[in-house]
Amino acid sequence: MTKRLVRLPKKGRAVLVGDTHGDYQASRLVIKNYLRRNTCVVFLGDYVDRGPDSRENIDYLLKLREKHENLVLLLGNHEGFPVVECSPCDFWDELNTSPETTSFYAEVFSKLPLVAIGNGFLAVHGGLPDVSRLKQIEEIQPGDEQWVRITWGDFKDKPGDYLGEFCGRPRFGKDYFERIMKSFHLNVLVRSHDPVAPERMYDDRCLTIFTSSAYGRDRKIALVNLERRVRSADDFEIIAF
């Protein structure tokens, strides 16, 4: 059975890594500096497309994951291309000449988890699923409504619940965020996916980070102590490199 929800340890620390989008160098730097016995490294998805080294990037991380249980790779919408198409999709276009290779990556990506949970916080690629209990995340299937919300969802810094779609991306407001986080009994969401979103929203409870050079901005990661309950984005150390 594919595990959709990963529970992080209650000891040590975690490093949360935003979209890398073919930035192989960024992934290597993060792994070199932070993958330790007492540290979980959680990538928030979107390893492929946009950047120059998509295949090198994802192959490197998949190989490392075989040896390190404390390396977590969440699903991003660009890994979900076989289910819901995205653009750009240069990684997938390059695989078109080899159906077997395309099927290999599609199968591997279909088994990536959707959500990681720590002490007071949740990590996803995009948005929050509209479920009342965390264990319901295990029931989410590729392509269903909750899967789309997690992999494609965006948050806007305005009141409201569901705010409609923009270019196929469901958008949500502060009321939706607070309702779902309250049902989970969690304080902070860490996400990536939307390069134009404010880094902090909703009274410092929604943190958006990116770790790719594809957008011409500083690469950033978020470091957190897993032994202390997270109450706001201030509990994360944001490191730019």
Specify the overall morphology.
Answer: globular
Number of domains: 1
- Helix-strand pattern: EEHEHEHHEEHEEEHEEEEE
Q: How many H/I helices?
A: 6
Unreliable runs: none
Global Rg: 16 Å
How would you describe the overall organization of this protein?
With 241 residues, the protein is of the alpha/beta class. It has a single domain, classed as Metallo-dependent phosphatases (Purple Acid Phosphatase, chain A, domain 2), CATH 3.60.21.10. The protein is 25% helix and 22% strand. A 6-stranded mixed sheet has the order 1-5-6-10-12-11, with no helix packed on it. Strands 4-3-2-13-14 form a 5-stranded mixed sheet, covered by helices on one side. A hairpin with a 2-residue loop joins β8 and β9. α1 packs parallel to α2. The chain is globular, with a radius of gyration of 16 Å.
Keywords:
single chain; 241 residues; alpha/beta; Purple Acid Phosphatase, chain A, domain 2; 6-stranded mixed sheet; 5-stranded mixed sheet; 6 helices; 25% helix
Layout of secondary structure:
Layout: E1 5-7, E2 13-17, H1 24-34, E3 39-43, H2 54-65, E4 71-73, H3 90-95, H4 99-110, E5 115-117, E6 121-123, H5 145-152, E7 154-155, E8 162-166, E9 169-172, H6 174-184, E10 188-191, E11 200-201, E12 206-208, E13 220-225, E14 237-240
Parallel strand pairs: 1-5, 2-3, 3-4, 6-10, 7-9, 10-12
Antiparallel strand pairs: 2-13, 5-6, 8-9, 11-12, 13-14
Helix pairs in contact: 1-2
Structure described in brief:
The chain is 25% helix and 22% strand.
